[in-house]
Design a protein that fits this description.
The chain has 434 residues and is mainly beta. 4% of the residues lie in helices and 61% in strands. The chain has one helix and 21 strands. The N and C termini lie far apart (74 Å).
Length: 434
């Protein structure tokens, strides 16, 4: 019973701290557990903050190590840079759907059951529509993921203010998404500017059950519904540096996003409610500004080399918890593509594309002085079916995140991404030929 009382006191302390002060990250015990018995779903690290921040745009650049800030949208959409939409085909609309299957394996001292240290899931990720409204003016509307949280595990939780540990079960699900509207305009023959306005929304549901053999278990439920507006600015530039070489550059700036929340807390001992609260929390979480830039070089319209760099200053926000803090994040992405051209009724298009890439990502999470780092390689392929208007893009990503030092958990994952696209005339001035 002493464990239950101490746990309850800890919960109330955290609630009062959230109410009286500017909210900090939800302090959970995933990385602070002395042991983990079972692990499933996406990632134990997604218990912190707004979860795992999505690095993929789920478009053609996914197979190129997620490098594509300098690449235009033509018959495929490029969501990483809103300036790309001005390069869409005239009088066509484009629609894309994306899904991802991911399998993850876990290792480290915290994993006590090696036979059950894997997980897998399949999720719908994107729906997007793009239209070339006029020559030099393209627009896109859709829904894209921002972050996700998905975990469940058992751990021994240290009860704050004591030397006691309690067997505790943690479970959480949720996601943060954005609905966006983007417009892009060509400025002269070489430059394009774009702006994306978006609204972020999502929910994070968490359960923590302190188990006891001598008394009733204590169940804590936290539900947070978050929302807030955001924007992104984009720039692209292209020039022919040689008859066989096209040089492209791109950059984006994403503004700071303040997420407001409706926060609810419920604490129950078996079926008896102890605490039940719901309240608005303005400024619940802040996503800092983001800077990104990229270069691409295309040879004979078929061979493309792309490089991107992205930076986000999280440390300025001063979010800290017991044993962890938020650090500035950055990502280097590198990609190659081979896309030979075909001509059908005087219209040139990519017959197919083959891709490869790699990336290195220092995430925003620092645990016990070690910044969580992710590495990965990608392979991709795709084609557009000439007469039907359907297109397929697939990619595989092999990656690793974290390490086994200081009781951390190392993740090795395999992801399969599939994007189905459809293009057709949205208006025509005459007879259709393609």
């Amino acid at each position: 019973m002493q464990i239950i009382k101490l746990s309850y006191r800890f919960i109330m302390q955290q609630l009062n701290r959230r109410v009286m002060l500017k909210p900090v990250l939800l302090i959970q015990a995933c990385l602070l557990c002395s042991s983990v018995v079972a692990q499933n779903n996406t990632s134990p690290y997604s218990i912190l903050g707004i979860g795992d921040i999505e690095k993929s745009s789920f478009d053609r650049t996914t197979g190129m190590g997620h490098a594509g800030l300098a690449l235009p949208s033509y018959r495929y959409l490029n969501h990483s840079n809103p300036a790309s939409y001005s390069y869409l085909e005239d009088r066509f609309f484009h629609f894309e759907l994306s899904t991802r299957f991911r399998s993850v394996g876990y290792s480290g001292e915290a994993i006590t059951d090696g036979t059950n240290a894997t997980s897998s899931d399949m999720q719908f990720k994107k729906a997007a529509l793009a239209i070339k409204l006029k020559s030099g003016w393209g627009a896109s509307f859709g829904v894209l993921p921002v972050s996700s949280s998905n975990y469940s595990f058992y751990g021994n939780k240290n009860i704050q203010g004591s030397n006691l540990f309690a067997n505790t079960y943690y479970e959480g699900t949720g996601s943060l998404n954005k609905v966006y509207l983007a417009n892009a305009f060509k400025v002269g023959k070489k430059m394009s500017l774009g702006v994306e306005l978006s609204y972020l929304f999502g929910q994070k549901n968490e359960e923590e059950e302190v188990l006891s053999n001598v008394s009733a278990s204590l169940l804590t439920k936290r539900n947070v519904f978050m929302s807030g507006p955001s924007f992104k600015l984009g720039w692209q530039w292209q020039t022919q540096v040689h008859k066989n070489f096209l040089l492209s550059a791109g950059a984006t700036f994403s503004g700071k996003t303040s997420l407001n929340a409706v926060y609810s807390l419920e604490v129950r001992e078996e079926e008896t409610p102890i605490v039940k609260r719901e309240e608005d929390q303005p400024g619940y979480f802040t996503i800092p500004v983001s800077y990104a830039g990229g270069l691409a070089l295309t040879y004979k319209k078929a061979y493309t080399l792309a490089f991107d760099y992205t930076s986000q200053p999280w440390s300025n926000l001063q979010y800290k918890g017991f044993g962890y803090s938020l650090n500035n994040s950055n990502r280097y992405s590198f990609g190659l593509e081979y896309a030979p051209k075909k001509v059908f009724r005087n219209i040139e298009y990519d017959a197919y594309q083959l891709q490869a890439g790699a990336f290195r990502h220092k995430t925003y999470l620092n645990y016990k002085g070690h910044q969580l780092t992710e590495y990965g390689i990608t392979l991709g392929a795709g084609t557009m079916l000439t007469r039907s208007g359907l297109g397929l893009n697939g990619s595989i990503e092999l990656g690793m995140r974290g390490n086994v030092n200081n009781g951390m958990i190392k993740e090795k994952y395999t992801s399969f991404n599939l994007t189905i696209s459809y293009r057709d005339f949205w208006y025509t001035l005459g007879r259709r030929y393609d």
